[in-house]
Specification:
By secondary structure, this protein is α/β, with parallel strands linked by helices. The protein has a domain of about 240 residues: TIM Barrel. The strands form three sheets. The protein has a three-stranded parallel beta sheet with strand order 8-1-9, with helices on one face. A three-stranded parallel beta sheet has the order 2-3-4, covered by helices on one side. Helix 2 packs across helix 10 and helix 6 packs across helix 9. The longest helix has 18 residues.
């Protein structure tokens, strides 16, 4: 490998040989400008982990059951305060219609998340899950860790019991949303009313102990340092060593428009939201090299668009994520990409792979 330092070359060799990179190695990889070489290394590691001749995607729908939220995250343009005229709680007939549309399009899963509503008790969510499972054969991937922690505090029930009760009512798996950066310096500035980094990890640990699978995420490109980005990845990797419960990792870039962190609103954050495709692809490649124990890395076309998402499949990603029949949170931040099943399949096929639909557990059909 010419054009790179011996130190970087040694790290990439370690990855090829399935030797673990240290956090210091991870930080060092971010310092290189040699994007193509990083991408080639991540692609090689991806092919070692996924020698199959196909790449995957899923058909699902992101249903937000409420936009009323007390968290007040500075990076969010979606939420509404309790008294806001545009606040809503989804009526069941509309929820059922959304599920039926998803099933009609070949979907087998719904992703259901919402704001931290101050007065909806646990029985509301239990009833929601039971009513869905009674009517439909659909996988429910729902309630990210901040929601679970919120339910726990609001109902004065331990997190473990909350997850047990939701699971008994029909919850199948937990999405990795609300992780942002798992460092409390960032969380205290961005989302002081949301769960701590440790609470997020504890929710996932409890879910994994109960045999539930979950995903892990990272929203980057706001106020975090490179060292904090790696600290986030290290915490995910450590928990995966302990439980093996994460099926996939998804990283996406912060979208600043319409948020309190929009560059035009604060000179303090003047560089925020300027993460482009170069840094996105570099981060995807490094996550593949660093997260040696997480089998699947998803592309984020929702924030990056189709072409960069396709390119990320040569930078370590092996999955195009969801068709995202409906998506509201990123859209509220002024970014609106859309892709249907045919376009996702075409992007995968163009890379020389067969496109296969999968479920949350990465079983293909």
């Amino acid at each position: 490998m010419t054009h790179i330092s011996g130190e970087i070359e040694d790290m990439l060799e370690k990855s090829f040989n399935n030797e673990r990179l240290s956090p210091k190695n991870g930080v060092k990889l971010f310092s290189t400008k040699e994007l193509t070489i990083l991408g080639m290394a991540a692609d090689q590691v991806c092919k070692i982990k996924h020698p199959e001749n196909y790449r995957t995607y899923i058909i699902d729908r992101n249903i937000n059951y409420t936009n009323i939220c007390t968290s007040g995250c500075k990076f969010c343009a979606f939420y509404k305060a309790v008294e806001h005229s545009d606040g809503y709680i989804i009526p069941k007939d509309i929820l059922f219609k959304k599920i039926e549309e998803t099933l009609a399009l070949g979907g087998r899963q719904i992703l259901m998340q919402g704001g931290l509503h101050p007065s909806l008790k646990l029985n509301f969510y239990e009833d929601l899950l039971e009513s869905i499972k009674t009517k439909y054969n659909v996988h429910i991937h729902a309630f990210s860790p901040p929601e679970i922690v919120h339910f726990s505090k609001l109902n004065r029930i331990p997190v473990l019991n909350v997850i047990q009760q939701l699971k008994a009512s029909g919850l199948d798996s937990i999405p990795g949303g609300g992780a942002e950066i798992l460092v409390d310096r960032c969380r205290n500035l961005l989302s002081p009313n949301k769960c701590t980094a440790q609470e997020w990890l504890d929710v996932m640990r409890e879910a994994h102990k109960l045999g539930m699978k979950t995903t892990a995420t990272m929203m980057f490109g706001h106020i975090e340092t490179i060292e904090e980005r790696i600290e986030h990845l290290e915490k995910i990797r450590r928990l995966q060593d302990e439980t093996g419960g994460f099926t996939a990792f998804i990283a996406w870039t912060f979208q600043p428009k319409n948020t309190q962190l929009a560059p035009s609103l604060s000179s303090k954050y003047k560089d925020i939201g300027l993460i482009g495709s170069f840094d996105y692809l570099k981060t995807v490649a490094i996550t593949r090299l660093f997260l040696d124990n997480i089998p699947n890395i998803q592309a984020s076309w929702v924030t990056q668009g189709a072409k960069i998402a396709q390119l990320s499949m040569k930078f370590g990603a092996n999955d195009m994520g969801s068709t995202m029949i409906e998506e509201n949170v990123v859209k509220a931040a002024g970014v609106s990409y859309q892709m249907d099943k045919e376009e996702i399949e075409s992007l995968i096929n163009d890379l020389g792979y067969e496109a296969k639909q999968r479920d949350l557990y990465y079983r293909v059909f």
